[in-house]
Amino acid sequence: MTGSQTTDIGGKLIELLTQQSLLYRQLQELAQKQTDLVNGSDPEMLLKILAARQRLIDRLAAVDRQLQPIRDDWTTVSQSLSPSQRHEAQHLIDSVQQTLGEILARDEKDFNTLNSQKQKVSGEIRNVAAGKRVNQAYAQNGTAAKNRFVDTKSE
User: Which CATH number does the domain housing residue 9 bear?
Assistant: First the structure.
C-alpha cells in the first residue's frame, strides 16, 4: 500500500465510522422516543418511530457494506493507519459498540413491556368472553327470565 492509499483508506475508514456513530446516536434517540411511546398510548406515533428506525437501519446497512472490505483486510489496514487514525478509529468503534449495547438493552426492555401489555389485554379479553358465555348460559336456561325473587305482591 502506498502512502496516499494509506491516507485514503484511513480517511475513508474514519469517515465511515463517523457516519456509523452518528447514525447509531440517532437510532438511540429514536429508541428513547420508542420507550416513551411503549409506555403511553399512541400506537400511530409508535409506528412512525419504528418506520424512522427502519430507515436509519437501512442507512447503517449501507455504511456497513462500505466498511466490509476494510474489515475483511483489517490486519493490513490497521497496520497502515497512522497512530492518530488508529486511535480515532478505535474510539469510534468503542462508541458505536457502547451505543449499540444501550439500544439493544432498551429494545429488550420495550419488548418485555409490550409482551406484558399484550398478555394483560389477552387476559382481559378472555375474561370478557367468559362473562359473555355465562350470560348466554343463563339466557339459554331461561334463568334470566324466571327470577324467583321478584316481588309480585307489592304491586
Answer: 1.20.58
